[in-house]
Amino acid sequence: MKIPSDTLRRPLSIARIGRGDLRLGVEISVFTSPHFIHTPRFGLPPARDSLGSAPKRTPKMFLAKRLIGGILDVVSNIDPAQFVPSDPPPPRRPLVYAEQHENDEEKQFRRVFQQLAGEDMEVSPNELMNILNKILTKHSDMKTDGFSIESCRSMVAVMDSDSTGKLGFHEFKYLWNNIKKWQGIYKSYDEDRSGVIGADELPNAFRAAGFPLNDQLFQMIIRRYSDESGNMDFDNYIGCLVRLDAMCRAFKTLDKDDNGTIKVNIQEWLQLTMYS
């Protein structure tokens, strides 16, 4: 896979790919193999030749490729045809342009955003944490430990399309609208009104949010985001869906042939996943 030279000025990110403004071209390989093949080593007698030595494979490189291959297998098990993401946030526009083309609802939201974001008109992870936790105080029916700074850093990272470390107006609005939508789903699938969603309630809750996942991925999500009893509270539910939404949008953008598979090398994969 080649990265166009005009995209090298900014680092790759899940948010940029998911937004669709990044176009990656694909090189067709002469030969590929899905498995690591063990072969014996051979030595050549001293001679003058034009062959350069190949980079030495190390156990760490092998394990890294196996791990990344496993992650891609799990993500590709999501049926692309069934995944229904929200429209990605549009590219940033100059403030004058935005004000001239916004409807009354957007103008009202922008005024609220200005109050929340402050003078720099961007929301940092710490500001996002304060905003979300302040909202939670008004919803005592939802069990939560509150949004941590780490979970808010993660949410900002997967939504941060220009890699500033903060959310602009459209990025924040996209996140805000999703949180409101997912909050309604969370409450409707908390059938026993316990304030949490149990493991038996999670599949329908994720399906209603647009993520029809298989059993293997559900088990991974439960181990990562639920407590020892398999219950998921509100902040973990939102954090999981934000990441899942961003990863699926990025995957669909990279799936040029619409066949449920993508090709990336280890350097590109690490650039996309480490800032998320």
From TrEMBL:
GO terms for molecular function: calcium ion binding. It is found in: Cell membrane; Cytoplasm. Keywords: Calcium, Cell membrane, Cytoplasm, Membrane, Metal-binding, Repeat. It comes from the Eukaryota. It holds the Pfam family EF-hand_8. Residues 177-212 form the EF-hand domain. InterPro entries: EF-hand-dom_pair, EF_Hand_1_Ca_BS, EF_hand_dom. The keyword Kinase does not apply. GO terms for cellular component: calpain complex; plasma membrane. SUPFAM superfamilies: EF-hand (SSF47473). Its main location: membrane. PANTHER family: CALPAIN SMALL SUBUNIT 1-RELATED, CALPAIN, SMALL SUBUNIT 1 A-RELATED. This is EF-hand domain-containing protein. The lineage of its organism: Eukaryota, Metazoa, Chordata, Craniata, Vertebrata.
